[in-house]
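Appendix B, record 7
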Amino acid sequence: MSKTKDNILKNRGSLLSGEYGRQHILFAALMLGGLIFAIWKAFYGSPSLDESFYLTIPHRYSMGDVPFKDEWHLSAMTGFLQLPFVWIYTHIIGTEGLILASRIFYVFVHAATTVVIYTRIYKKGLLSIVACFVLFIFAPYNIMQLCYNSMGIDLIVLSGILLATANYDRSKASLIISGICLAGAVLCCPYFASAYVIYAVCVLVHVIMKKCRLERDWIISSDMFSGRSFLYFTAGIVGLAVVFMIFLFSRMSFSKLFESIPYMLSDPEHQSTSIWNKLMTYNNNFANVDAFLKTSANGLPAMRIPFIIYLVCFAAVLIERGLKNGKRKVVELIFVIFTAVVAVYSAIIIVMMLTDPNKYGDLGSKVLVFPLLPIALCAYALSDNRPKGIFAAIFIPALTIHENFNYIAYAYYIMLFVLILDKKRMEHRQIYLAVSAAVSLSTLILLIKDLGNWLMFPLFFVGLTSYTLCEKKDRELYAAVFLPGILYTFCIHMGSNQMFNVISMAFTVVNVASCLFLGQLINELKAEADKESFKVWTKRIAAVCVIAAVAFQLGLEVYSKATEVFLDDSPSELTATITKGPAKGIKASENGAAYQMWLLNYVDDFSNEEPGNILFMSISTLPYLAVGNGKFSYGTYSAWLSGENRTSFDRLMSYFTLNPEKVPKYIFMPKSSNWDKDNILQQLRGMGYSIEEINAGYKLKKLS
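Structure tokens (predicted):
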């Protein structure tokens, strides 16, 4: 494995080599065009509550605040990565024009990440350019800002690419930087720390296999899982972790950390739930199957117990085949019979449910695919040459994105079932590729009216099929980018209430690997000598389908970025320029610009006051950046209050009890807000605040 990797690295050549010269020129030209396009787009769109909130966290850190103790939002750690830019900008200029400047800074950071990735993968050919631009063009929610979403994607891709392409015998820097990137990704999505745990377990298995001299052609045998690789990778993680800890505990104590965490985790917008419940909501199909397994149709025993027994038998057959037990045929015959029984029994229950739709109709049509599940598992378990990576197909979480998508997903499942049974699948792989590309293309077409983050999901089908059918599999790339990307889709779902919006966004990581697998498969198909006209024509059909799917993917990304603005009109309708404040220089709609000026007007009432802690009792987050050109410190647990309600007010009171030094000197409550104004103003008056009614709301000041 290491010799093969060495040969690949030796053949990488110079970026200016003649063999790849034209490709590099094409990439550079597209990159320049992409930069101009992105910078143009950065000037459009009134900043949303989300975008300005992203900047409030590093802004308050630049004034001495710290995660956990002072900032209670669950994304608090992300501000540490944004802090250097915000600190430099605000200490030189203040907050005037901060949002536009940070958008442009995001464009260059995102572009630099893309260029670094290209230098590591360009040997894959033209599809390496596609992989880079699938990543570069997309911005989560079309918000061009460094935040936990955009940084999480970039850092995971960069970490995986550096790890997959490292020279495991000699390289130190690539492995260390890869570890740093993973640590940064964990700051953006703490649940992604599970990726490091999984990596550590794989390294342990690798070491045991080496000591026991177990020779297996498994990905875990790669030197990517060697102790040396793991050591330098961990060094990178520890390096960033130490810097973060110094930042954290130079501003707070250990006791304060443990005192604050329970309050931070009580965020009403992100209520804790079990991993099982998150899994069920991750994939709507899982939820339907879970309900189906628990349902008893017309008094028949529920499917849950026989299916659990079946899964145990399935696992036993996998292990038994690996050990080549002499009684294999008997065991496999019993397993086949049991498979048939489970499939038929589930079909009977489904038929009974269909005859009583009033009682079982809430299960939906998705359970119709269930009888195929044991058959597919059986075919996989008994296959002489099991297609690698096929189990990633379980991660098809989008079965509710469109009413007609169910049929597309089922078509892909059926294709995988046929692929598993096909002993000559490598001779027919152009057919499977054509079907997968058609599935991706069809899904993209369904999403045209509602793009957003969802358009980043469909390329997954092409990627999984391509990896499965490649003869020379880039297993390091599969283990370091594709599978962690799928893990990331679940991890980000664990910490979010946005459901498929964030799940589909995280598939951007998977897409980068998918494009590279596709490039490898295309190269292998081109290298084959074709004598049969059938094979020639099926390859041409596959080529047309692939080109259409990839072109449509990139086209929709460009179209979405050019025409969609998060919570605002299209760029052509954004004709008003914001002339002052943090959003200075940005073009917005007339209403959007007027709203920004309205916010700045009530902020101006505090401009002549001596800077101190300030609380804006509003869902708007921009005033914290605007007041006093960013010189007022934060008198709140977060600029994001999770609503104007009693729960938020009670959290504020708990925060002030825990951190009396953060009690605000100034408070502003807009008249248009939804607070119980009479009761809250009376309570605040009792806490020693004077109350002045002004045009926009109520201005409060601490008397002592």
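Remarks on this record: The longest helix spans residues 533-563. Confidence is low (pLDDT under 50) at residues 4-13.
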